[in-house]
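Re: How this chain folds, sequence and tokenised backbone to follow

Filed under: protein folding, tokenised backbone structure, sequence and structure records.

Contents: The amino acid chain and a row of whole-number tokens, matched residue for residue.

Body of memo: The sequence and its backbone structure tokens, given next.
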Amino acid sequence: MMTDGLTFPCMIDIKVFLHARENNPEWVKKLLLQSIAITDLKEISIKESRSAKYHSLSCRVHAQDKNLIDEVFIRLSSHPDILMVL
């Protein structure tokens, strides 16, 4: 099915930016897994900014449909510790 120029199912890259805190940004992965099956989370990497003020988490997701992507973006962007989702 084609929606907004995407043909589903497809691979989607998601990038999440958050403040670097004492805690490990692995909690973002747990947040993702509330919407995405573990088998659909294909790649994940975490980087710290040069200034050590921010973390960026990049992941590749096998998306079955647009509703799944919308749910992920809403869940992530509504979290108070997440600055931005792309």
Q: What stands out?
A: The chain has a mean pLDDT of 87.
